[in-house]
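job 3f2a | input accepted
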Amino acid sequence: EVQLVQSGAELRNPGASVKGSCKALGYIFTSYYIDWVRQAPGQGLEWMGRIDPENNGTKYARNFQDRVTFAADTSTNTAYVELTSLRIEDTAVYYCATRRNSGAYWGQGTQVTVSV
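job 3f2a | predicted structure (116 res):
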């Protein structure tokens, strides 16, 4: 069974950084990209980018490319996202996902709250 298990909620001040993880279970980690998506309160899904765990190749959405970094550790089948210079408007639930022809598998989400 494919599962993506994400790290727990985080609370940060503006200007800080946050790092989240996404552990892949039940499939060959290097065979599929991991996408990162977020959803701010009352907003739709916003794609942040993706990583190819086979070679750590990345593609970042333009809105995030200066502040986000993806990484993948094939020894633990875990993907990571780090967002720097946090702003209040970065408050959101952050999801990892892995796509298939039949659909996508999603992590349970990580709540990141940025507050003074």
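job 3f2a | The first strand starts at residue 3 and ends at 6.
job 3f2a | closed
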